[in-house]
Amino acid sequence: MKRVISKLFVMLLLAGMFCSSVFAASAKVTYVKGKVEVSRGNAWVAIKVGDEIKESETISTGFQSEARLNYNGSVMAVPALSRVTLETLQTSSTKDTVSIKVDTGAVRSKVTHTDGKRIEYSARTSVAVASVRGTDFSVFCNGRARVFEGAIAYFRAAKFNAAKIAKAKADKKEGDQGAADATTPAGDISDSSPDGAVVVGAGQSSKMNKRGRSTNPFDEAKNRNRKARNALASASEKDANGAGGFKSGGAANQTGDIELSIVVVD
Question: What is the pTM of this model?
């Protein structure tokens, strides 16, 4: 009887270990333009649509080149003259873990959040880390992060504390967390968020310098809107002068709301 109980215990233990096991995964190449290579061993190898990029491999794009990868529904777009390392690609029955490092250039990520399965997704540079859930955002090697949808917790890379992350993960219940926005506390966006992390919401951006000082996301948004209004007023004035009509008074003569979507290349 004791032997039977022991066997059952071992079987249940092994089953539990199997269900909670973490497996290394890979991202699939879905789009390639121009010269795109992956570092394997001591060589750079050209990649094509359908290829698999494994954990710890580095993608490099040449001039006027681009690549897009898909990992369990989340998309990574690597623009020209960029070098990005897929540091962590892991999956289990309860969550996906993705960590990418932007060595040069930039990467835009659109993170897909699956109901009932948690995703831990971070993109880092030498100066900052962006931790997210269910977000469309870009990270540039110069320390700038821009959010198109959702929100990110953005903090200095030197404050990345592995021990704190492990404790936070153990204390937090796994499962569906829902979408994040600019009002979501940084600690709720990611377990890895230290004190002082900046929350960057949709339509906002922030730039962090090597000393860990970041610009205010609201100020960044206001500055972009101001530049857009000035550009609009200048164009309106030039059109009026060129047509020989009356001189426009600029933005003061504009009525209603104008929403512009501007992409700035850093």
Answer: 0.70
